[in-house]
Design a protein that fits this description.
Helix content: 40-55%
Number of helices: 9
Shape: globular
Radius of gyration: 19 Å
Number of strands: 5
Distance between the termini: 12 Å
Strand content: 5-15%
């Protein structure tokens, strides 16, 4: 296994980290090409704690990115200072990041995940104070996902670092106690997603296919 691209994601990348926040890492790796020709395919994801790190095999990451999975997509839009591993092949992937985007997938993923967060907020028992911290986290995710998804839809750019993290924290606290107030934010976002954006109807898979073939050629054999 060789890591091609890896960096710090999550609350640290968004600017929402606080004292005691976990540092989350995300990356992608290339499995030796020969491993794809045996009885069992190589492991596609490796997840560890201490440190908190998720690594996806190159092909799996590409599939996630083509579906505009918000978590996977972050990896190729990070601020430069948050990358910890950045190989030439990883650099190439950053260079083709816009080819993974499509209007329908961005809407489905970002609006869909935000709606899930809203449902979690709405189903919380207000008398259960132990879930209050978790509810605020759901609310912050809701706000962030809508902002990022709309930025992609309207500008074609994924903005990882929030311009006003304190405002997002304040909204998280408010929506945790009054989830009904987040309904308007969700409705407004849905209306904006209904308007024409800048993204193509479908992603362009050719650059990803070409990149992945170069990855396989570069990793034909297992390391000695």
């Amino acid at each position: 296994m060789r890591i091609l691209l890896s960096g710090i994601v999550g609350s640290t990348a968004y600017g929402l980290a606080h004292a005691g926040s976990d540092i989350d890492r995300l990356g992608l790796f290339a499995a030796p090409t020969e491993q794809f020709h045996g009885l069992h395919r190589p492991v596609e994801s490796r997840v560890t704690t201490a440190p908190d790190r998720t690594l996806h095999e190159a092909a799996k990451w590409c599939r996630l990115a083509l579906s505009c999975n918000p978590t996977a997509a972050e990896l190729v839009w990070l601020p430069d200072g948050l990358y910890e591993v950045r190989t030439p092949l990883g650099e190439e992937l950053i260079g083709i990041r816009r080819s993974f985007l499509s209007e329908r997938a961005v809407r489905n993923s970002y609006l869909g995940y935000a709606t899930q967060q809203f449902r979690k907020l709405s189903s919380r028992d207000p008398s259960d104070r132990t879930s209050r911290t978790r509810a605020a986290k759901h609310a912050r995710h809701l706000v962030r996902l809508l902002r990022q998804g709309l930025a992609l839809h309207e500008t074609g750019e994924l903005r990882i670092r929030l311009s006003d993290p304190e405002r997002v924290r304040d909204l998280g606290e408010r929506y945790a106690d009054h989830p009904e107030q987040a309904a308007g934010l969700l409705a407004d976002a849905e209306a904006r997603f209904d308007r024409p954006g800048v993204l193509p109807a479908e992603p362009d898979e050719d650059p990803a296919e070409s990149w992945l073939r170069r990855v396989r050629l570069a990793h034909l054999a297992s390391p000695a």
